[in-house]
Every structure is written in C-alpha cells, then in structure tokens.
Design brief:
The complex is a heterodimer of chains A (590) and B (687). Chain A has 3 domains: 233 residues, no CATH class; 148 residues, no CATH class; 49 residues, no CATH class. Helix content of chain A is 31%, strand content 22%. A 7-stranded antiparallel β-sheet of chain A has the order 2-1-5-4-3-6-7, sandwiched between helices. In chain A, strands 14-15-20-17-18 form a 5-stranded antiparallel β-sheet, covered by helices on one side. Chain A has a 4-stranded mixed β-sheet with strand order 8-9-10-11. With 687 residues, chain B is an alpha+beta fold. Among the domains of chain B are: 118 residues, 2-Layer Sandwich (Nucleotidyltransferase, domain 5); 133 residues; 111 residues, Dna Ligase, domain 1 (2-Layer Sandwich), CATH 3.30.1490. In chain B, strands 13, 14, 15, 20, 23, 24, 31, 34 and 35 form a 9-stranded mixed β-sheet that branches. In chain B, helix 10 crosses helix 12. Chain B is globular. The chains are: A alpha+beta (590), B alpha+beta (687). Chains A and B meet through helix 2, helix 7, helix 8, helix 9 and helix 11 of A and helix 3, strand 22, helix 12 and helix 13 of B.
Chain lengths: 590, 687
C-alpha cells in the first residue's frame, strides 16, 4: 500500500459515517470499476452479439444483491441481475459458497431472459464473509436450443440448456466438467466457452478492484458509503416522482401474436403515483402464452425500470436506491410473470411494448418528459444457407424505426428501438461483403410518420435480393399496432415485411421460422414511423412545405393530413397561404 | 522550399485554445524557447494568431518555419455550420444513407435523442443508376445520360460543391471517376469530391460522411489559410507553414487546403507530439500524457515511444474516417464547478465555469466554487504570483464561496471542503486513466506521467500516487506545452485502400503491387512538399480481422512481400497483435481489410539546450515557505517555495515543496523528491 494512500482522519474512523467527499470518491470508484468490467468483457468476448451489439448486463452488488453500480450494456437489462443473484445464492445456500467460487446460471426464470443469456456471478469475500457480488449476463451465440434463434418454441427445453446454478469455479479452480457440459451443448463451442471465460475475467476484475477499495478505506467505510450512495439514489428518484401528480392511469397495447397462434395478445399497464412512490401494475394483461413471448418477471421489472430512468433520471447513474420508490406488480401465470416451463425465447418484445406504452401515460401527466410512440420494433431478420463450396453461413440485421414526436419537436428518423441503446445497423456494403445478398433500396419511408403539429420520424424501407437459396427467421412485431400520436397527433404506419416481394406469391409475415426464400427473390422490410404530437392543422405551413420539398411528406399528404395547399411543380413548390388558411378553417369547423 | 534549409533561424508554433492563443518561439541557434499568450478571438482566430506574433515580438523575416495547430477554423465551421452549400450524388436507392446514419443512440437514456443536423438537405441528395457488387464488378453501368440530366438539376440548386459516393467504389472507382468528369463538364464552376479518392474505405455511411464534410469545409479552410499566408507575407515571412493534423503529423498549407477534415481535431495533438519527443529524450518509452486545462482533462498513452491511434474520429456526432491520436477527454479542469445537488451529494464537474465567468478567484463574475478556487483556498496557488503577478486573485472570495456553498451545508471545515473538491476531481481523473488503460489491457504502473496544461503540474504528484506510477514529469513551459510540442512535428500523410478479402485467398505478389501503388502516392506527396529524399520514410500496415468479425487490428507489414512464406508470416503477425489486444487467438481464417501506408517527411527536431548546472542543493532558488493543505492529508504542512526559473540542472528538491513559475505551480508532496534534469524538466518520484 502506498504511503500516500492515507485517508484523512475525518473518513478513517470506522464508527463514523464517512463524509460526503469520501462517499463521492467511493461512488466514482464503483462507477468506474463497472465501466472497466465492461471494457474487460468487450475486449475478451468472442461473439459480435456481445462486442458489437452490446447484448449484456453487468454490475456490482452489495451482500444483499442490491445494485451499487452498473456498467453500460443493453438498456433493456437495467438492474436485472439482482434477481439472478438472489435466486442462485438461495438455491445453492449461502453457507455452501466459498471464497473463489464463481456461479453460473442459464435458467430463464432466474436469469430473467432466454437461456442464451448466461449469468456469471462472483461473490466477493472480505474477512471470510460475503461482502458483495460482481455479476454479468451476456448473450451466447448458441446454447442447446433447437435452432440459434426461434419464434415457435413451446417450452424452455426446446430453447436451451438449463442450468439452475452451478459452480463453474470452485475455490478459484475452473471446473472442467461444467465447462464440458457447456461445450457439448452448443454448435459453436469455441465462441461460447470463450465468452464464459471472458465473463469470469470480467467478474474477477471487478471483485479484485472492490478488494482494493476495501483495503484502502476499510470494509466499514465502504459499506457505509454504499448505504449513502443508495440513499442518495432514492432521494433523487423520490424528488422526481413527488413532482408528478398523484393518480392512477391505465394504458393498453398488444402484440400481433404469440408466434404459434394468430390471435393478438392484449397487454395492459396501470401507473399509480402516490406522493413520492410509483407502482406499475400489469394486471389485465394476457395470461402466459403457448408461444415464446412470455416475459419472465425480472425482465418485466427491468423494462419498467428502464422507462422510469428515461423519464426521471436519464443522466443519473442508476442504482438499487433509485428504484426503491418503484413497485412492479404482475400476477403469477400472466405473460409478465409466467410460470416455468412456459417458453420465453422472445422474452423481450412484450415488455418492450408494454414499457413504451407507459410513455402514453406520461404524455398526459408530465408531457414535457414524454414522446409519442415509435415504430416499436427492430425489424429483425436472420437468414442462413449453404454457399457454393458447401459451407454454412448465418447472418442477420436489425433495423431502426421512426421515433415519436415530442411537444416541441419532430420525432427523429430511423433510430434503433429505445431498449437497444447503442446497437447499430449492418451497412449495405458489409451485408454484401459477408453474405450472398444484394441490397437494392435503403431509404426513409415517405409518409410513414404520424402527422401532427410536430410529426413523427420516418421509418426505413429496405429491400434486398437473395443471391442463393436462403432460410429466413423473422421477428417482426407491431404490424397491426401503429405508433400512436399524442394530443391530436396522428398515428403512423405500422411495421411491415413482404417476403418474395413483387411476385404473385408474395407473403406478408411478421414472426416466421425456417421460411424458404429462393435465389433471385426479394425481401422488403418497412419499419413503422413515429406518432405525431398535436393537431396537424396547427403545423407551421412552412415546415410542411419544407417536408414536401425534402420528400418526407408527399404532396397528397400535405393536403390530406395537414390541410396545406402547395402550388407549382417539383423544384418550384410554393405555399398558397390564403387557400391553406381557408382549408384549415373549414376542416377545424367540421 | 524551407524544408531543405538547415536549422539556424527561428521557428515558432501557435496553439489556438478556448481562452488563450499560445505562442512558443524557438531560437534555433541558442536552442532556447520563449512563450507568450494572447487572447483567443473566436470571431476570427487569425486576429489572435497575429496578436500573439506581435506580442512575442517575432521578426518574421528571420523565421523559416511556422507551425499552426489547434487551428479551430475547420471545427468552428462545422459546429457553426458555416461550410458551403453542398450536393450529394449516390447510387440509386441509397440517397438517405447520410441521414439514416447507423441507428445507434449515443444518449442511451434520452427518449428525445436527436441525430446531428443534416449537412446536405434531402432535396440536394441525388441518385443515379449504376451498381457494382462487393467485388467491385460492374452489375449495372453508369447511366451517363441520366447523370447529365441530374447535373442540370444540381446546377439549378446553386451549390458550390458536389460530394460523390457510390456503393463499393473503394473497390473500383471507375464509375465515380467517370461521374466526376461528367459533373465537371456540366458544372464547370462547381468542385467535385469523390469518395474513392477522399477515403477509399468500406462502410458507405462513414465514407459518404467523410466525403461530404471534406467538400463542405474545404473552401472555408482554403480561405483561412489564404488569409494567413497573405498576412504573414505582408510582414516579410518567406518560410513554410505547417499545420498539425489529428493524427499527430503535420501537413503543408497546400495539402491542408484540400484536406480540411485532417485539421478538425488537431487541438490536443501538440501535447502528444511533444510527449513522443520527450519519451525518446528522457528514455521513458511509456508515458501517459495528461493535459489539465480550464474545462477538460485530456489523456493519451505512449507505449514503446509510439502513440495510440484510432482509425475513426467522431466530431459533433459525425464519424470521419481518418487516422487520429487516441486522446480521451473528460470534463475535469481548473474551471470545473463544485456544488451540492438537490439530493445532498457533493459533485465536481463535468460542467465548467470556463473563462467567463471563471473561478471566483479570477474576479470575472464567477460565483460558484471551482477546482482552481479550492487550490487557492488550500494554499497551492500563490495569489501574488498568478500569471507572473499580472492578475491579483480574490482569495477571500474563494474562501467565502467554498465556506458558504460547500463547507457549511456539509458541516466541514473550509479547508476540508476544498480538499474534498480536489480529491473528487483527482479521483475522476484517475478513473479516466484506469478506464483508458483497461481498454487496451495495460497496467498504468508501467507508465510515467507527463503533466502539462495550466493544472497538470498541480495534480501530477497526487495522481502519480493514486495510480502507483513510477514518476511524474513536468516539462519546460508546461502551460504552453501543446504549442511547444508542435515544434517537434514531422510531415505525415496516410494513404489507404480497403480491399476486404480473405487473407488465404490473397496472393503476395498482388498485395505487394497494391502496397507499391500506395507507397508511390505517399512518396509523390512528399516530393510535392519538397522533402529531401533522405528524410522521406514509408511505413506499411494492414488492418486484419478474423473472418466474419467487424473489429480489425492494425498489423505492421514488411517493406517487401516476397518469399513463399510472406503471407503465413503476415497471418502469424496478425495473430500475435490480436492476442496482445484481446488476450487470445482463434486460429481461424482471417480477412485483410484495409492497406495503409504512412508517408513521413522528417523535419529535423531542434536540440534542447542544457540549462546551467548546479549541485543537488536547490536553496539558490528558494523563495520562502507557505502553509498548504495537501488534499490527501488531514493536517496542513509547511511547504518550501522555489522559483523554477532559478533552478539549476542537478538540483534535487525534497518535498514538501511548491515550484512556482508564471503560469503554473508544481506540487512536490512530503514523501517525494523532485530532480531537475539537464534541460530543466522536473522529475518527481517517491522517496
């Protein structure tokens, strides 16, 4: 230890609460350690779903598995590992966990998502007792499922290898038998075992750093500081909730289907605010489904937590304290709290859709914090096939959608869904370099946005041609539920996928597994626009003219939806203000 | 040209910062440096540059080389959207690529996140029928009649420049080149930039954006450089102007006019260039450079006397495919604001008081305590010596600000509150360094730290302890070190070509031919810049990745690829670089993605002249003593005060001590010693 590491007397007394300066230094250390754990994982992981799509979640927890600091991963997993740690530790028995053990779970009902999201947990020991945990779950390429991705499973055993909670390291030593079980249950053993190793390194790194922190300040001080960090998060959240009105509001949404049947699946959420506390209750949503769209309760909670953070604390590093004033209620046996072994492969969609619907309530009670709805989906398509030399390949891409307008600005065009954060597209040049496809069109989808005083953002139209015979998996949702507008703003166009586009046998399908797309045929994806905000007849006619000149809005739509009269031909469009005012007056009177 | 003359005259460098325009002048015969500062003139930075030259009293007739860096002309034009009206032409079906961008949300939790505003409005984005496939083969020929019709539309749109980017043009530029010919025929007054010559790399969005920004900014930069040349010529300057680039190299004024994107982020590069020079001189090949300014803390690593670079720069949300030094920035500096948030926690930064209103102690209207105020309150900064005594600091104001806004609400002594501000600022800095090294898998303890900027010398000793670094080094002229570093720059040009193909299907002879073509282009550029042959250098590298991965690593390539095993050697070199970055090797097939040639034109660096030698005893430079509250200690201590200008080579200062110079103060903690080296650098180590 350094001579310079002496801590000022005001912070060194174990009985005293650490002063606010020490608390801030320790908070900053925790946050930075979580970010460095993320760097360690990204650097060492083997698969692009982790190092490019950032499909993981990690954090540092106290001995009660309360989140102290989270590394930036996929936003949708906000705070999810608390559940996992508690379940796995309870299952194994805390008395059976020893220093140097590292735990592994793939059980969806504890991990909170599908079995591919393997969770690794490292208990941190101080003086022979558990002081806290580091934990990470990350999406493996393939683990024991009927296919690498699936939209039509009916139980969890079709979806992946189930491990409740096993010690992948025992007292610091890797358990070869556990690693072998994993290795034997995947089509991509090197990638998966590599990712497991990266996750262990990530947790060990975090645990080591927390060990250094404890050595420097003493366990008592660090523990007290953590209590203050959580209490501070709680105060931040309570202040923000208290600023919102008390009351109870409900919102409904729905999924197109459950991947097996054709019926739409109703979703419902109720927000109750009382003083500085908030409850989100999904009672009234559909029961658990036959198909894989069920959302294990931890994912339901994560989705709600993400929306809460986006609304009241986008710049605050969330911790367990921040979420204390939030209660999530989902009846057991419902789609938001299913019972094993209900299938969960597409666990994310129901919660993402319900989560986004909460913005509709916020638009009423705190409009300045809200936005109209986005296109609401990822436009996800995967495809596979055999190249001329007989080798197998698999590829795929997600698409962005139009974003909802806010009360003072148009929605953004073509962004990834709110729950996916830093996920990116696959550029056309990269698609064609990697896979036998030819991209023919990649553009903004004119008129896809909801009209409004502020209009929504546009979705995209992407058309590509198969150059060899392909098999498709599509996960397109919200093809029947367009983005809603707010305060008189119009709905947008919903998501749409056409297979064999332009041919007599073209088909409109959302969720599909193993569909054949022969060489030479096309796929057209159109992602939904965002909803509008405010009456389109109140939109500044100059902005409508600008949209027509840019081609975001067609001439027909400017007249039909906005009551704006534009004269002249392309290249010399001009506003007829008198006719516009007359049209708008007449429409408003009607 | 002046590059060929021997170094006998004067050269000087100018760094335009947010507040000050720094000038450092080197008298090459004497080997001595002098510095001055003028106020930055944001409306037209040229005024500040000329004011600095006047202030320093430089006789321009004797100057053979003038270096400008941190030239904010291109960056300001981009931020203020003052480029020229630009049209965009692309493959049919793809005109929205610059607006779709990549879908990602850099502000993950902001439901109202917006992309940066479009540079080319949608109605100025045009399409033409043509198509290549991923191998660069023509699927559909360029429709020339259609293009001529489109050109007429572009003429009506009254643009100054057209950026052209066709799919896969980096593999085969035939359509882009033909399109340029046609556009120039149809639009003789408009300039045309094609992506295959600006940046022949794959990924259509990044390539198109780079091409668009270059076209958009070129006329602005050309005008600025023209004005600079005219003003200098008027004052008798007959030497050569060199501008620094984001990658730490230099380019001549003529090269800069056609390549404004390379100037966008040259600001922080000077410090790293100076660091590279000192890494060799001091024989400390591993350095972390840290620059503490008023608003930001910039860090970079130098490993084995090489600075880390990245292949993409992000400016204001836009990606630009150019090589750039890997410099990380956090919002922590002398102006960082301290306060207590609504839920009762103490924070420091990232918001800054900037130059105006500035810290309370500066008497420019600042009312909220800053890091600088905390240094003043705890005795680190001599209120009578600030800016060489030209600015009287308001110590009482700083004390009152910290007492009322921080100490009282938290129930602390005022000095403890000031210590708290400094501890928090320092821990943010330490964590930024840990984050940077954890990304590259480095251990900070293997690095010495080079501290500069107005606040670097104040934080260096504490950061050295916090991170267990072996030494902290305070160079000469620390507060103008970025300008100083500029004097050490070499000309540099990167020539690149994406090929994106499997390595095991690549023939050594054809690869050799492609590298030779790139080398010829780099060489010709150096010839145009009149670099003598013995100072021209070429370096090859290639970006390789495992097949199917997105991320590639940069692998050095030998200057000649011959012999039967040259490709297997390249594969082996790739695996070994990959392992050093990611910690493992896959043994899987690799892709060779991009070929790069770095063409260097060496500019002879000046020799540093030794300062007067003395014995270990520094008492001759002693000014007095002062009570200082070291912010990692609970009790105040007496620090001895030294005047840096009077220190001699060989002096050894035993802490606790402060070493004062006009624009900064160096802290030597109680368990440190500080040695003065032969040229006047301060080397702090633990006892």
């Amino acid at each position: 230890m350094l001579k310079s590491a002496t801590v000022p007397a005001i912070a060194s007394s174990p009985s005293a609460r650490p002063d606010p300066i020490t608390v801030e230094v320790i908070r900053s250390f925790y946050q930075s350690t979580a970010r460095q754990m993320r760097n360690t994982l990204v650097r060492a992981s083997f698969n692009p779903i982790i190092y490019e799509m950032i499909d993981f979640s990690l954090g540092i927890y106290n001995r009660d598995a309360e989140l102290i600091a989270e590394g930036p991963g996929i936003p949708f997993f906000m705070g999810t590992l608390t559940f996992t740690i508690r379940q796995v530790v309870e299952y194994l028995g805390v008395e059976n966990i020893e220093e140097g053990d590292v735990l592994l779970s793939t059980y969806p009902y504890w991990v909170g998502s599908h079995s591919q999201d393997a969770a690794v947990i490292r208990p941190i020991f101080v003086a022979g007792k558990i002081f806290g945990y580091t934990a990470v779950k990350a999406h493996w390429m393939d683990l024991g499922a009927k296919d690498i991705y699936a939209t039509d499973t009916t139980d969890i055993w079709q979806e992946g290898l189930q491990l409740f909670g096993v010690k992948v390291m025992k007292r610091g030593k890797l358990d070869r038998e556990i690693v072998d079980i994993v290795r034997a249950n995947t089509r991509m053993p090197d990638s998966v075992v590599g990712d497991l190793t990266a996750q262990i390194s990530c947790c060990n790194y975090g645990a080591q750093r927390i060990g250094e922190l404890v050595k420097k300040y003493g366990a008592g001080t660090v523990e007290q500081a953590a209590i203050q960090i959580l209490d501070h998060g709680e105060r931040v959240a309570r202040q923000a909730i208290a600023a919102m009105p008390d009351g109870e509001w409900s919102v409904e949404s729905s999924m197109d289907n459950d991947g097996i049947g054709q019926d739409s699946v109703p979703l419902k959420a109720t927000i109750r605010i009382s003083g500085d506390e908030i409850t989100v209750d999904t009672t009234g949503s559909a029961p658990q489904q036959v198909g894989p769209v069920n959302s294990p309760f931890p994912s339901t909670v994560s989705a709600v937590r993400l929306v809460m953070k986006m609304i009241i604390g986008p710049n605050y590093d969330a911790n367990e304290g921040f979420f204390r004033p939030l209660r999530v209620i989902s009846p057991e046996g419902s789609i938001f709290n299913p019972k094993a072994p209900a299938p969960v492969f597409l666990y994310g969609w129901a919660a993402m859709i319900m989560g986004e619907s909460l913005f509709r309530i916020v638009a009423q009670i705190a409009p300045e914090k809200s936005v109209a709805r986005s296109g609401g989906d990822l436009g996800g398509v995967m495809f596979s096939g055999h190249l001329a030399d007989g080798s197998y390949f698999a590829g795929g891409a997600d698409e962005g959608c139009g974003q909802g307008a806010s009360q003072d600005r148009d929605g953004e065009n073509a962004l990834i869904l709110y729950s996916l954060g830093e996920s990116s597209n696959v550029p056309a040049e990269i698609m064609e370099e990697r896979w036998p496809v030819l991209v023919e069109k990649y553009e903004l989808w004119q008129d896809s946005a909801g009209a409004g005083k502020f209009r929504g953002g546009l979705g995209v139209r992407k058309q590509w041609k198969a150059l060899i015979d392909l098999k498709l998996i599509g996960t397109i949702e919200q093809t029947k539920s367009p983005a809603w507008g707010v305060d008189g703003g119009a709905d947008a166009l919903p998501n749409d996928m056409l297979i064999s586009a332009g041919l007599p046998h073209e088909r409109r399908i959302g969720k599909v597994s193993g569909w054949a797309l022969p060489a030479g045929e096309r796929l057209l994806i159109q992602t939904g626009g965002g909803g509008g905000w405010g009456n389109p007849l109140d939109r500044d006619p100059a902005l409508v003219l600008k949209d027509v000149i840019g081609g975001y809005v067609s001439l027909e739509s400017s007249q039909r939806d906005y009551g704006v009269v534009i004269t002249g031909a392309e290249g010399s469009y001009a506003l007829d203000m008198a006719a516009t005012e007359a049209t708008r007056r007449q429409r408003k009177a009607a | 040209m002046a590059t060929q003359t021997q170094s006998t005259g004067t050269r000087f460098a100018i760094d335009t910062g947010g507040t000050f325009t720094d000038i450092v002048v080197l008298d090459e015969a004497a080997g001595t440096f002098t510095m001055d500062k003028a106020s930055t003139t944001p409306h037209n930075t040229l005024e500040g540059v000329l004011a600095a030259i006047d202030k320093a009293g430089v006789d321009l007739r004797k100057v053979d080389r003038f270096f400008v860096h941190g030239s904010t002309t291109a960056l300001n034009a981009l931020l203020e959207r003052k480029g020229v009206r630009t049209a965009y032409l692309t493959t049919r079906g793809f005109r929205d690529v610059p607006e779709i961008m990549r879908y990602n949300r850099p502000e993950m939790y902001n439901p109202k996140y917006h992309k940066p505003q479009q540079i080319v409005p949608r109605e100025l984005r045009f399409e033409v029928t043509e198509r290549l496939n991923a191998r660069g083969e023509v699927l559909e020929p360029l429709d020339e009649a259609e293009l001529r019709a489109t050109a007429r539309k572009i003429r009506e749109a009254d643009v100054s420049t057209v950026a052209v980017c066709f799919l896969h043009s980096f593999k085969n530029s035939v359509h882009e080149r033909r399109a340029r010919e046609i556009l120039l025929e149809e639009l003789p007054d408009v300039s045309v930039a094609i992506s295959s010559s600006v940046v022949p790399e794959h990924r259509e969005f990044e390539r198109s954006m780079t091409t668009i920004l270059n076209a958009y900014l070129a006329p602005v930069v050309e005008r600025w450089i023209g004005n600079l040349q005219r003003e200098l010529t008027r004052r008798g300057f007959a030497g050569e102007i060199v501008l620094t680039k984001s990658d730490g190299g230099g380019m001549t004024a003529e090269a800069a006019k056609g390549s404004p994107i390379n100037m966008l982020f040259s600001g922080p590069a000077g410090g790293v260039i100076g660091g590279l020079y000192l890494a060799n001189v001091l024989e400390r090949p591993n350095l972390i450079t840290m620059d503490v300014g008023g608003t930001s803390f910039d860090i970079a690593t130098i490993k084995a006397a090489n600075a880390g670079t990245q292949r993409e720069l992000k400016v204001n949300g836009y990606p630009i495919l150019i090589s750039t030094l890997d410099i990380r920035t956090i919002g922590a500096g002398g102006g960082s604001l301290a306060g207590i948030d609504s839920a009762g926690a103490l924070y420091v930064g990232p918001r800054s008081a900037g130059a105006v209103p500035g810290p309370i102690a500066y008497r420019r209207g600042g009312t909220q305590p800053t890091v600088t105020d905390a240094f003043v309150v705890n005795g680190f900064i001599n209120p009578d010596n600030f800016l060489g005594g030209n600015m009287a600091l308001d110590v009482d104001g700083a004390i009152a600000g910290i007492r009322e806004q921080i100490a009282k609400p938290l129930g602390l002594e005022v000095n403890h509150a000031a210590s708290g501000i400094l501890r928090i600022a320092m821990s943010h800095m330490a964590e930024a360094i840990r984050s940077m090294t954890s990304e590259t898998g480095d251990d900070p303890r293997d690095f010495s730290m080079l501290c500069f900027g107005g606040g670097g010398a104040l934080f260096g000793a504490h950061l050295m302890d916090e991170l267990s670094l072996p030494a902290a080094i305070i160079p000469i002229l620390p507060s103008a070190f970025s300008a100083w570093g500029m004097l050490m720059v070499d000309l540099r040009h990167d020539v690149v070509q994406t090929i994106a193909q499997r390595l095991d299907g690549t023939d050594a002879r054809s690869l050799e031919g492609q590298f030779a073509t790139l080398e010829r282009r780099g060489w010709e550029q150096l010839v145009r810049e009149a670099v003598p042959e013995d100072r021209r250098q070429l370096f090859r590298s290639a970006d390789l990745r495992y097949a199917g991965q997105e991320h590639s690593v940069s692998v050095p390539v030998p200057s000649s690829l011959d012999g039967p095993d040259s490709m297997s050697k390249l594969y082996e070199a790739f695996q070994s670089v990959y392992e050093s970055v990611y910690g493992y090797r896959l043994g899987a097939p690799a892709d060779i993605v991009t070929l790069r040639v770095k063409a260097i034109g060496k500019i002879p660096a000046p020799a540093l002249s030794p300062i007067e030698r003395g014995g270990p005893d520094p008492e001759g430079a002693r000014k007095g003593r002062r009570t200082v509250h070291d912010f990692l200690e609970s009790e105040a201590r007496e620090f001895r005060i030294f005047d840096r200008a009077r220190l001699k080579a060989g002096n050894v200062i035993v802490g606790p001590a402060l070493i004062e110079e006009a624009t900064t103060t160096t802290v030597v903690r109680h368990h440190h010693t500080c040695a003065v080296d032969s040229v006047g650098n301060l080397i702090i180590t633990r006892r």
